[in-house]
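[step 3/7] inverse_fold.run input=structure_tokens len=417
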């Protein structure tokens, strides 16, 4: 009787301490994460996906520029980028001049651009279209689970206390990460993700100052499985925090990251990857692409921020001999209209481009050049369904079941060499 009461008091104390122990920024991972112990994939590949979301609708035509197309220059008398300014890829295509770093990756065979990506009957609402990209379903088929969340949910073998995915930044967590049972943390700062000294001491005391290898299997009656489960997950949280603390302390890089929001986020991702977490997916965002007016300067600055941050990130991973483990996937909820508007900007469109970075890719341009004389309500027609890109990522990079993750069968696009 005495041992049973003691175990119950210990369980209650640990439950309270566990909630405090996994604080993330100003939010916290709720106790439901202990019910799952943040299931991570048992895949031997250890491949990591980093998703960069360009929010607002990135202008595909001024990202991958058809500089020799008369229809392009006619539709954009003020916004078109000429042959003398683009970073030429071939006789028809060039990159925006702000993408010099990305162009270096492309020329080195470590990047690719997918043209004409979208979906049938395009929706031009930011919220509706982003939800379609996040869930792979339209509003009348709406689900509260995202494509990444469903993929992670299907990887059901617990591996450690590491989160299977992380969202970095101050924005609301993307629906793409939502799943039925898993709790995904939003990390606002690495310091916030670590156990503070007082919390570590409390948890250690509650566990009776047992050695780490013994904390996962505390002495308890046979029917105290919940207590043992909580002990195990708390120990895993401590172990993950210790790895992150060590990674921050030991992390060194000769790479100069840009002083930008995206640069800071991707530097955090690099630090987390070097900490040897079993986390499979990292998700970051760059906002501001809703360029209805005075687009030229703002779009140039956004693409420069993206290019500089991603280039620094890939160089950093290469320095740490981790670049072969990581694929960076960049998307936006739609492209912009072909014709510029009266405010020297562009309005909501349809098909766009996706960009990939990594050392195992099929490099260069994928898909066919857009036909600017064959439009759908003033927009580019999509050639490639974005879900075929997701299917290729899930099947050939993450080693998962694409049909389960996407909720339907799509032919995986061949993205990797």
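[step 3/7] decode complete -> sequence:
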């Amino acid at each position: 009787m005495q041992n049973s009461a003691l175990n119950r008091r210990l369980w209650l104390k640990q439950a309270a301490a566990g909630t405090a122990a996994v604080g993330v920024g100003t939010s916290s991972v709720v106790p439901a994460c202990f019910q799952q112990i943040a299931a991570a994939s048992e895949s031997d590949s250890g491949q990591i996906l980093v998703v960069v979301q360009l929010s607002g609708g990135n202008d595909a035509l001024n990202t991958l520029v058809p500089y020799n197309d008369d229809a392009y220059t006619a539709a954009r008398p003020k916004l078109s980028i000429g042959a003398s300014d683009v970073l030429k890829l071939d006789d028809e295509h060039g990159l925006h001049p702000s993408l010099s770093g990305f162009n270096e990756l492309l020329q080195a065979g470590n990047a690719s651009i997918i043209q004409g990506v979208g979906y049938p009957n395009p929706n031009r609402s930011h919220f509706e279209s982003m939800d379609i990209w996040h869930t792979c379903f339209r509003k009348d088929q709406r689900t509260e689970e995202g494509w990444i969340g469903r993929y992670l949910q299907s990887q059901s073998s617990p591996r450690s206390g590491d989160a299977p995915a992380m969202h970095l930044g101050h924005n609301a967590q993307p629906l793409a990460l939502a799943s039925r049972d898993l709790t995904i943390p939003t990390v606002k700062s690495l310091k916030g993700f670590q156990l503070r000294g007082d919390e570590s001491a409390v948890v250690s005391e509650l566990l009776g100052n047992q050695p780490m290898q013994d904390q996962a299997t505390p002495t308890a009656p046979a029917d105290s499985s919940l207590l043992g489960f909580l002990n195990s997950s708390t120990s895993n949280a401590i172990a993950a925090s210790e790895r992150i603390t060590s990674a921050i302390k030991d992390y060194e890089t000769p790479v100069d990251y840009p002083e930008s929001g995206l640069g800071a986020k991707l530097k955090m991702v690099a630090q987390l990857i070097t900490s040897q977490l079993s986390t499979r997916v990292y998700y970051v965002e760059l906002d501001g692409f809703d360029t209805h007016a005075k687009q030229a300067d703002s779009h140039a600055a956004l693409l420069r921020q993206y290019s500089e941050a991603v280039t620094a990130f890939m160089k950093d991973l290469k320095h740490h001999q981790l670049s072969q483990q990581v694929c960076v996937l960049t998307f936006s909820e739609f492209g912009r209209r072909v014709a510029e508007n009266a405010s020297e900007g562009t309005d909501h469109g349809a098909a766009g481009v996706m960009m990939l970075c990594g050392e195992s890719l099929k490099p260069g341009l994928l898909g066919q050049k857009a036909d600017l004389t064959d439009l759908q309500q003033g927009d580019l027609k999509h050639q490639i369904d974005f879900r075929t890109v997701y299917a290729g990522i899930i099947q050939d990079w993450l080693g998962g079941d694409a049909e389960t993750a996407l909720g339907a069968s799509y032919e995986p696009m061949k993205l990797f060499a």
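[step 4/7] annotate
The longest strand covers residues 48-55.
The chain is about 40% helix and 15% strand.
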